């Protein structure tokens, strides 16, 4: 008896990127054995049992009934293979090699899907990521579980074939059953933002103004004040004044969520809002693990990362934010692989001024010693604070202000229009937000008038680091954009400078 080998295609995830994997099935003379080679993890090794049971329950002769050597190779062998989404390709490769199904053209097809023991197909992570790679590599069809179909169908260049179980899959590829490719349904979108509106909170006009500036220039912001004054609610409302995601942004954001196992079933069209608890580990925050996966900062890509009780986070976790806040990406390096994951977000943070929360409060006395106050504030390092453009101290709202009727519902929608106009002005100017300007670009684009130049001469060099100086120019440029001004004035600079805390440095 000779030997017979067949080749199909699947894909592997590396961070948020995909790589095409060849699945080779070889049947040879010898005592029964079923081996999967190609640097697979434990979940992949367990595919043998899933495939055996799925084939048996589908009424097909499984590998454990073969008195032959069965070898499945996943190539290239130097790429680590993780996950269970190779099950479908392995099962079909075996069936082709044993001639239990008719040969078909597999060169233009990708197969994904985890097999249940009864032959059903379970959804997998990274469907959109793999669909994008398949289209880029010239593949024509992607066969995958029905639950992943709409997500993958966002890639219009690829024909997406939804599958329910193994028996149906065999019928489709043999031509016994027809199956039309699915079309992307934009209605299948997932709500991941917040419903907070600025009209729901009275007072705090200074904080609302600062949040509008943060949204308009995509600047990082810190709200600093005693507990109960609305810091958390205001931060949640920030998401509601940012423009909706563009299609390229939506695809990139969805790829990150899908790779993290948070498949939305369609494209994400809202700005993400992530609020990890202060007990989150550094891996949960920035990503990583043995097989690197996106963390909270990447899940907040194109959106907002909200860190409540900023000073309570682990110091090493906060310091790990410094590099992605500058570059917009996070490098996850491990022994066997290194991946780069996007992480361009607005950092919105809130913190109390001291352990008891009432340092500097006009109505309630602080019970902390001076040492405790300084130690608490210094938990947030100077370099990290220097990367936060807007540092806003907010206080209590009077009873009279609280009793006033709230503004008409929809204040966030009005602010969103101003923010959108500012984004458009920045897009036309440089194709990126003011927060992303280099130092030279910030200096040129500030376009300061004489009053602004005179104002800068009054500032002592101890007030600002070089990074702080350029961030001041970027914030002033954003304020000018909100007001539709082509030049930055002394008023714009003065307002930008007012959003810097003197308590923390």
Top keywords for this entry?
505 residues, alpha/beta, Ribosomal Protein S5, domain 2, Rossmann fold, 2 domains, 5-stranded parallel beta sheet, 4-stranded mixed beta sheet, 18 strands, 17% strand, elongated
Task: Please tell me about this protein's structure.
The chain is α/β, with parallel strands linked by helices and 505 residues long. It folds into two domains: 170 residues, 2-Layer Sandwich (Ribosomal Protein S5, domain 2), CATH 3.30.230.10; 231 residues, P-loop containing nucleotide triphosphate hydrolases (Rossmann fold, 3-Layer(aba) Sandwich), CATH 3.40.50. Helix content is 37%, strand content 17%. The chain has 21 helices and 18 strands. The strands form six sheets. The protein has a five-stranded parallel sheet. Strand 1 and strand 2 form a beta hairpin. The longest helix has 20 residues. The relative contact order is 0.10.
Strand order of the largest sheet: 11-14-17-10-18
Give the CATH level 1 class of the largest domain. Answer: Alpha Beta
Write the CATH homologous superfamily of the largest domain. Answer: P-loop containing nucleotide triphosphate hydrolases
How confident is the prediction overall: mean pLDDT?
A: 89
Q: What is the C-alpha radius of gyration, as a whole number of Å?
A: 28 Å
What fraction of the residues are assigned to beta strands by DSSP? Answer: 15-25%
Using the coordinates shown, work out and report the CATH topology of the largest domain. Rossmann fold
Count of runs of 4 or more consecutive helical residues:
21
Q: How many domains comprise the coordinates? A: 2
Structural class by SSE content = alpha/beta
Tell me the total number of β-strands.
18
Helical residues, percent = 25-40%
Terminal CA distance: 78 Å
């Amino acid at each position: 008896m000779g030997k017979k080998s067949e080749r199909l295609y699947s894909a592997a995830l590396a961070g948020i990127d995909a790589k095409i994997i060849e699945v080779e099935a070889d049947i040879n003379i010898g005592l029964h054995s079923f081996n999967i080679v190609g640097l697979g993890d434990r979940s992949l090794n367990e595919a043998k049992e899933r495939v055996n049971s799925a084939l048996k329950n589908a009424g097909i002769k499984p590998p454990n009934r073969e008195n032959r050597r069965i070898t499945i190779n996943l190539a290239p062998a130097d790429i680590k293979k993780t996950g269970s989404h190779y099950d479908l390709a392995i099962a079909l490769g075996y069936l082709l090699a044993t001639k239990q199904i008719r040969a078909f053209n597999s060169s233009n097809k990708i197969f994904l899907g985890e097999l249940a023991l009864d032959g059903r197909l379970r959804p997998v992570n990274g469907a959109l990521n793999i669909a994008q790679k398949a289209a880029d590599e010239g593949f024509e069809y992607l066969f995958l579980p029905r639950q992943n179909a709409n997500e993958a169908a966002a890639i219009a260049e690829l024909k997406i074939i939804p599958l329910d179980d193994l028996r149906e899959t065999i019928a489709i590829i043999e031509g016994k059953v027809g199956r039309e490719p699915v079309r992307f349904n934009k209605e299948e979108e997932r709500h991941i933002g917040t419903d907070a509106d600025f009209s729901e909170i009275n007072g705090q006009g200074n904080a609302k103004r600062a949040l509008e500036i943060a949204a308009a220039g995509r600047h990082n912001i810190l709200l600093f004040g005693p507990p109960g004054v609305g810091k958390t609610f205001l931060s949640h409302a920030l998401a509601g004044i940012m423009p909706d995601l563009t299609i390229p942004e939506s695809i990139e954001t969805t790829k990150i969520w899908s790779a993290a196992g948070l498949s939305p079933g369609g494209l994400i069209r809202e700005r993400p809002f992530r609020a990890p608890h202060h007990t989150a580990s550094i891996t949960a925050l920035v990503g990583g693990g043995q097989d690197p996966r996106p963390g909270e900062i990447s899940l907040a890509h194109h959106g907002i990362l909200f860190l409540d009780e900023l000073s309570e986070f682990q110091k090493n976790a906060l310091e790990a934010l410094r590099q992605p806040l500058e570059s917009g990406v996070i490098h996850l390096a491990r022994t066997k692989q290194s991946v780069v994951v996007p992480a361009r977000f607005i950092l919105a943070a809130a913190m109390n001024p001291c352990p008891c929360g009432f340092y500097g409060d006009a109505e309630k006395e602080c019970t902390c010693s001076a040492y405790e106050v300084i130690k608490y504030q210094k938990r947030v390092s100077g370099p990290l604070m220097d990367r936060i453009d807007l540092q806003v101290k907010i206080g209590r709202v009077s009873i009279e202000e609280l009793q006033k009727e709230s503004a008409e519902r929809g204040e966030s929608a009005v602010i969103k229009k101003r923010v959108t106009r500012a984004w458009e002005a920045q897009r036309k100017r440089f194709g990126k937000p003011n927060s992303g300007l280099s130092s030279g670009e910030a200096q040129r684009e500030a376009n300061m008038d004489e009053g602004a130049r005179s104002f800068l001469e009054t500032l002592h060099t101890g007030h600002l680091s070089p990074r702080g100086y350029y961030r001041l120019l970027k914030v002033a440029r954003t304020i000018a954009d909100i007001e539709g001004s082509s030049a930055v004035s002394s008023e714009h600079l003065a307002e930008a400078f007012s959003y810097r805390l003197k308590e923390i440095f």
